[in-house]
């Protein structure tokens, strides 16, 4: 083993975070692009321009999501088991929505009629907005605690309902997710398209960023005043993983504890809001490349804010706080974490390398003119 | 108590979504290599017709690939949504190959598939071929890791039960990866995919030849498919035999039910080619047997016995009784009596813990099981013989039929007389469904044959479910049926449309339909 168990647990918390950030920055961006599609593309050529900026990449980008799911299964099996079965209908909704995306990307251009393409545009919108919303809602509900229990044989059971997830804070978090991805996608499209499409993309992207800043700030105040969870006592972090051996209480404002204990973590919410403002500025002055870098850092800030506030919790239980899942005790064995760490350390840099190669090869502004002259070689 | 309807619905949903997903996987597995072959010829010879072949078959591949990706998502979600106790109980072992599949294979495949479709103008010829090649490697590595995961369900090596965490934990990653069952399954499955893709290309090319359009395009495609197909079907059959040997070693129940071998025969056992198994009487009526064959396939010897169902039952009964003891000690350990003696006793018994858990179907507390419960559990420790017996034979029959088609196609193609053999061309067209039939029944044998276990001899299927309700399941199954039917209609319609258009859909102004419109006189052959 390269690292002791406790260190590996921490590293895996970080790796899951990195995978989620990868997901938001790449696939989240594609979702944002699809949400902006109907707003910034008025004609079919314009819409094809928008789609072709991500045409060669959406499938690879989506794998960040798939791999995050796989990593959750391997590194935090209890979280995977409890969250996916607990949020049953929410997950199915996401799944059915996600079906639309590969088909829409691949099939849309195959038939040249207005109805066919318009329907696929709606499908693309649904396939992107619904997952973006539901993921936000799910994250929001983690802050509130999820009504589940775990019995002595470690079987998780969920006692809430699907509509229970759609509480005000959950919906607010869902909107945060939608606006941040639209803002991020606005920067991308402003950079990769030309003329009217680029102008509109910048405009809508900036609107989205402003709304995001407001919603994220509201969410911050809300979190500061809601009941958070605290660990009173728990087994040694080096010991075997068992989520039912600790004592947990809830207290108002407890989600801010980590920030007072480690003030350095305040950098994450600051990055979330600050970088959104910086992205807005760069977009406004016509520097979308810097805007895109800023909005990517904004996503890092938002996801790390959620992680740092909840830490070490991953999925607190509102029904029986003592069985809350944390990154110390809902994890895989020492050996599995070790094997998976080696795999991630080898493959994540490789993935980044060849993904970069693909982006470099495809890097060129996609213009409406070019799209109109190439009806068969592109989406 | 266990709600049987709920368990059956959970299984039904998984079966529907998995079998549906696997309608699209084989074509992806095989087509990527066919594209590599075609494009390699293009890069080596520079003849444009091979680029057109790559692009056209690539289009059909893309239509299929999109649904493969979409329905594959279901599979990743479903362990968590519908088999959450499974996910907890074996996630430590089973999750690893799935996550590595994402990192090592799926990223590769998906990143380069976009470049394959849209990178033609942005990459040099060699670079594009490289992209196609990496896409094929990624696709096939994907299958490798998925089958390592699946192989572990069949033969759970390299892992041990931990009473403190109440789950299976990995003890050796190497054993997990080099699980002999997984290795054999991998080759059997991917080569079945190559067969499916070859039959697809062979059948459609035959249709073009029969219709007399785009002949040289079709004949070149036919050549690639017949060669690749023949090699692949031989590999499938050979590896099918090798899996027979592996199954004989580690999955005796599966073998006995496939063969309807009710009682242990004297070695070497005969292979029942055909017959009507009767579970009530435990006999196979009107059986046609090949002497020695089963013994040789399953044991690679003439003097080892192949155990029959009645002997396996005795063995299961013993293990169930041991499992009750194991459960009793597990209970002690989890309730504070974890003395070294109790731990040692439990360790000696825990290999049979899974058999004890089988009793949970009849009584909440395993140690309270009555004699009748135990007898029932023994009976229920086998899949039904009928479905196993027939599924296996349908698979094999399709395989043999395909072997004949590919062999003849290869032979006549090599003698350059394929155009005159119209009966064979029609046979190839009508053989297109065969690989899919064989593959789906093959999965039925593999997975239904694993019942009543989710993880062989470790975790019973009925315990592996999520804590959901029957109503939840009815709603989600209805959702899947509606969505999947819709997907199938759109996909089938689009696929047929492009197959009918043929290479004319590339809009290069070289092929049949575009030529008809321009110069009706010169109908045939768009050539390099």
TrEMBL record, chain A:
Major subcellular location class: membrane
Membrane topology summary: Multi-pass membrane protein
Example of a GO cellular component annotation carried by this entry: cytochrome complex
Pfam families according to UniProt: Cyt_bd_oxida_II
Keywords, ordered alphabetically: Cell membrane, Electron transport, Heme, Iron, Membrane, Metal-binding, Transmembrane, Transmembrane helix, Transport
Cell location: Cell membrane
Name the UniProt record assigns to this protein: Cytochrome bd-II oxidase subunit 2
Organism: Paraglaciecola mesophila KMM 241
The gene coding this protein: appB
TrEMBL record, chain B:
Protein name per the record: Cytochrome d ubiquinol oxidase subunit I
Topological type in the membrane: Multi-pass membrane protein
Keywords per UniProt: Cell inner membrane, Cell membrane, Electron transport, Heme, Iron, Membrane, Metal-binding, Oxidoreductase, Transmembrane, Transmembrane helix, Transport
Mitochondrion as UniProt keyword: no
Gene Ontology BP, a term: aerobic electron transport chain
Gene: cydA
One MF annotation (Gene Ontology) recorded for this entry: electron transfer activity
Organism lineage string: Bacteria, Pseudomonadati, Pseudomonadota, Gammaproteobacteria, Alteromonadales
Family annotation (PANTHER family): CYTOCHROME BD-I UBIQUINOL OXIDASE SUBUNIT 1, CYTOCHROME D UBIQUINOL OXIDASE
Superkingdom classification of source: Bacteria
GO CC terms in record: cytochrome complex; plasma membrane
Organism: Paraglaciecola mesophila KMM 241
Keyword Repeat found: no
């Amino acid at each position: 083993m390269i690292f002791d168990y406790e260190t590996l647990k921490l590293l895996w918390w970080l790796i899951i975070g990195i995978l989620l950030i990868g997901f938001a920055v790449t696939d989240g961006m594609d979702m944002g692009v699809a949400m902006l599609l109907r707003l910034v593309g008025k004609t079919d050529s314009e819409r094809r321009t928008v789609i072709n900026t991500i045409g060669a990449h959406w499938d690879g980008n989506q794998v960040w999501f798939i791999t995050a799911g796989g990593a959750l299964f391997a590194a935090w099996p209890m979280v995977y088991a409890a969250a996916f079965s607990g949020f049953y209908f929410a997950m199915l909704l996401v799944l059915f929505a996600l079906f639309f995306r590969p088909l829409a990307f691949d099939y849309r251009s195959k038939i040249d009629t207005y109805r066919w393409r318009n329907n696929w545009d709606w499908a693309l919108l649904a396939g992107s907005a619904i997952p973006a919303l539901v993921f936000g809602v799910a994250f929001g509900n983690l802050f509130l605690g999820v009504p589940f229990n775990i019995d002595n044989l470690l079987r998780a059971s969920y006692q809430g309902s699907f509509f229970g997830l759609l509480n005000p804070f959950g919906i607010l978090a869902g909107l945060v997710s939608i606006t941040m991805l639209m803002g991020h996608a606005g920067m991308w499209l402003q950079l990769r398209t030309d003329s009217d499409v680029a102008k509109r993309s910048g405009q809508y992207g900036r609107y989205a960023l402003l709304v995001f800043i407001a919603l994220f700030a509201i969410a911050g105040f809300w979190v500061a005043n809601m009941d958070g969870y605290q660990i009173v006592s728990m087994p040694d972090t080096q010991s075997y993983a068992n989520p039912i051996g600790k004592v947990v209480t809830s207290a108002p404002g407890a989600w801010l504890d980590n920030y007072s204990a480690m003030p350095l973590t305040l950098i994450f919410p600051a990055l979330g809001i600050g970088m959104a403002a910086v992205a807005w500025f760069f977009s406004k002055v016509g520097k979308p490349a810097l805007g895109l870098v800023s909005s990517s850092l904004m996503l890092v800030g938002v996801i790390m804010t959620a992680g740092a506030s909840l830490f070490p919790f991953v999925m607190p239980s509102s029904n029986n706080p003592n069985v809350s899942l944390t990154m110390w005790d809902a994890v895989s064995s020492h050996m599995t974490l070790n094997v998976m760490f080696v795999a991630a350390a080898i493959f994540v840099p490789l993935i980044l390398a060849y993904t970069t190669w693909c982006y470099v090869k495809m890097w060129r502004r996609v213009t409406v003119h070019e799209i109109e002259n190439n009806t068969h070689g592109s989406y | 108590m266990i709600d049987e309807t709920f368990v059956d619905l959970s299984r039904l949903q998984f079966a529907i979504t998995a079998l549906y997903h696997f309608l699209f996987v084989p074509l992806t597995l095989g087509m990527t290599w066919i594209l590599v072959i075609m494009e390699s010829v293009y890069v080596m010879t520079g003849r444009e017709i091979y680029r057109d072949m790559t692009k056209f078959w690539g289009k059909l591949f893309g239509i299929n690939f999109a649904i493969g990706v979409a329905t594959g998502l279901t599979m990743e979600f479903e362990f968590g949504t519908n088999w959450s106790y499974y996910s907890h109980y074996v996630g430590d072992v089973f999750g690893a190959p799935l996550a590595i599949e994402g990192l090592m294979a799926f990223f590769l495949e998906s990143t380069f598939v976009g470049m394959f479709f849209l990178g033609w103008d942005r990459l040099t010829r060699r670079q594009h071929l490289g992209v196609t090649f990496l896409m094929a490697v990624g696709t096939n590595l994907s299958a490798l890791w998925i089958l390592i995961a699946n192989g572990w369900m069949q033969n759970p090596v390299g892992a041990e039960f931990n009473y403190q965490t109440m789950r299976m934990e990995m003890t050796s990653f190497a054993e997990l990866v080099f699980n002999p069952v997984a290795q054999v399954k991998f080759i059997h499955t991917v080569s079945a995919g190559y067969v499916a893709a070859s039959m697809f290309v062979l059948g459609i090319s035959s249709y073009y030849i029969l219709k007399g359009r785009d002949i040289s395009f079709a004949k070149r495609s036919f050549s690639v498919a017949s060669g690749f197909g023949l090699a692949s079907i031989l590999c499938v059959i050979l590896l099918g035999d090798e899996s027979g040997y592996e199954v004989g070693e580690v999955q005796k129940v599966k073998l006995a039910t496939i063969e309807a071998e009710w009682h242990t025969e004297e070695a070497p056992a005969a292979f029942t080619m055909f017959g009507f198994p009767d579970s009530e009487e435990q006999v196979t009526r009107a059986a046609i047997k090949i002497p020695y064959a089963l013994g040789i396939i399953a044991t690679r010897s003439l003097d080892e016995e192949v155990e029959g169902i009645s002997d396996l039952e005795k063995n299961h009964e013993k293990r169930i009784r041991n499992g009750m003891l194991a459960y009793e000690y597990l209970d002690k350990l989890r309730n504070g009596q974890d003395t070294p003696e109790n731990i040692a006793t439990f360790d000696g018994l825990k290999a049979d813990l899974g058999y004890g858990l089988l009793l949970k179907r009849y009584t909440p507390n395993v140690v309270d099981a009555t004699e009748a419960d135990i007898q029932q559990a023994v009976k229920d420790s086998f899949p039904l013989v009928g479905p196993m017996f027939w599924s296996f034979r349908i698979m094999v029959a399709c395989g043999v039929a395909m072997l004949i088609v590919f062999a003849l196609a290869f032979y006549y193609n090599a003698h350059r007389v394929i155009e005159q053999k119209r009966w064979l061309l029609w046979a190839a067209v009508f053989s297109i469904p065969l690989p899919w039939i064989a593959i789906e029944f093959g999965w039925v044998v593999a997975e239904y044959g694993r019942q009543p276990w989710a993880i062989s001899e470790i975790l019973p299927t009925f315990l592996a479910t999520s804590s959901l309700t029957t109503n939840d399941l009815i709603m989600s199954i209805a959702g899947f049926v509606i969505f999947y039917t819709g997907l199938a209609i759109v996909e089938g319609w689009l696929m047929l449309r492009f197959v009918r258009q043929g290479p004319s859909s590339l809009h290069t102004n070289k092929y049949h339909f575009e030529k008809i419109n321009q110069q009706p006189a010169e109908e045939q052959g768009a050539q390099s």
